[in-house]
Amino acid sequence: MKKNVIFIGLALIVGLLGGWLIFGGSTNDRSPVKDLSDMSDQHDHSGETVEQMWTCSMHPQIMQPEAGDCPICGMDLILAEAGAEGLAANEIKMTENAMALANIQTTIVGNAEASDDDGMVSLSGKIAANEENNTVQSSYFKGRIEQLNVNYEGQQVNRGQLLATIYAPDLVAAQQELITAASFKASQPALYNAVRNKLKNWKLSDTQINAIEESGTVRENFPIYATVSGTVSEVMAAQGDYVNQGQPIVKLSNLNSVWAEFDAYENQLSQFNVGQKINITTNAYPNKEFEGTISFIDPVLNNTTRTVTIRATLQNRDDLFKPGMFVTGKVKGATQTMENTLTVPASAVLWTGERSLVYVKTNPNEPVFEMREVTLGNRSGETYQLSAGLNNGDEIVTNGTFTVDAAAQLQGKKSMMNQQMMQDESAMMGDMEMSFSNSFSSAFNEALPSYLKMKDALVESDAGQVSTFAKATSKKLKEISTSDLGKMEKQHLTKSIEMLDAIATNDNLENQRAHFVILNKNIVPIAMNIENSTNYYVQKCPMANNNKGAVWLSAEEEIRNPYYGDAMLTCGSVIDSNK
Known about the structure:
InterPro entries: 3HB_CusB, Beta-barrel_RND_2, BSH_CusB, CzcB_C, DUF3347, HMBD, MFP_Cation_Efflux, RND_pump_MFP
CATH architecture of the largest domain: Beta Barrel
Family: Belongs to the membrane fusion protein (MFP) (TC 8.A.1) family.
Largest sheet: 7 strands, antiparallel
Number of domains: 3
Mean pLDDT: 76
GO molecular function: transition metal ion binding; transmembrane transporter activity
Structural class: alpha+beta
Number of strands: 29
Distance between the termini: 92 Å
Number of helices: 13
Helix content: 25-40%
Keywords: Transport
Radius of gyration: 41 Å
Shape: extended
Pfam families: 3HB_CusB, Beta-barrel_RND_2, BSH_CusB, CzcB_C, DUF3347, HMBD
CATH topology of the largest domain: Elongation Factor Tu (Ef-tu), domain 3
């Protein structure tokens, strides 16, 4: 049996070997099967002009016509996505698949159409306690709180309710005086009345005083009663505390009326007046609309939010409104909607805190977008009126705007998130206009060689040499006359000298590099605005300064990073020059 298996195996091997010799070993040129690479070589490429571009996965703004290393981080470049050519500097292109996944929708901007909300201005706000109805219940005499009957926020208190019981040594002595004076009230009525008035000033009633006088017994603990009704908004003392006369024990808020406080932007202020009716809705009661009247417009603008508080007083006897509840108000604006006013959906607008942005589709046939700044007018319902930034017929993104902005940021294009960074970089590159005389330029040029030596010492991580050259640079700058400098120019020079002195007196390399960041924010704009006999390059490392980026001056185009030295010697790129 084993021999048969061996013979069968040998037969199979011989058969396979013979088949290969007959069919596979032939190299006849007449064979119909050809190598794929040969077919590729025979294909005519004469009509193709597409140039392949290479980019960096970490810095997609890098585009080069051939493979190599990223000039910023040194990583190997990868093939860029096809079809990215032909775009403007701030345009981005998205794939159809990405558009579908993010549900990106666009709308063509047109003139405003009349609606039920025409002329209505929408405001967001929240309910607050009416401070006019707030009261503080205080102790009328000095003593120790023996019992506190109100001890948590939100507790309801009625007028006349016992708030606390206090042991008051002064009252004990005053009662004894009353009992003594009562026996002489016929002969010394003035003294007797003075003692009674003293107790009345401590808010003891005639009934309480008469009871003490009739019983002839001194009472040690005295009650404090609520003088108003309300809700406890703050407990200001604890049981066992010693309190002084007039010291607050509890704060009460009467919520029978509340304030609805709204934030209005500067460009909306002309729409509001005290006495205007305002319709208020809240998520708690979506089917109800409450009417209020504007009672107060804050005369001071909030510098942080750039808004003004507008307040309406609401009756709250049914206890529907709770402080902290979000509400929406609609006011019939004093200025009506103008004809031919462009409107955009509120979902299309990105607000950075200082400016409003939208994304415009610049190519009607392809998903190509560009960020554009707009000036907003009034908000009417879910739309904004525009006073500048768009034209009738422009197509803008109305759904998925944040997704488009994120794509722009990833591609290194201008976006909501990196716009300020680009502006700061632009200022570093010499767009900050400064004016210097020829004598100043000549003197400043004499300080730059020692600055460059200090930069090279930072590259070599030699803290001692960094201090030496910083001191030499500072000395040169201090010799320059500042009599003909403007305010901004003088500030940059003064700050540069301050940072150089800090570097010169510091032997900690990391600390020197931290001061070098601030130094370059001031000295680079000066160097880019003076007459130079030598060419200088403004170079930037995006990872320095805690990934915020930092610049420096160099006489050579080659990158030698002073912020990291040997650790990341070639990290950076040239962003400007004075050529």
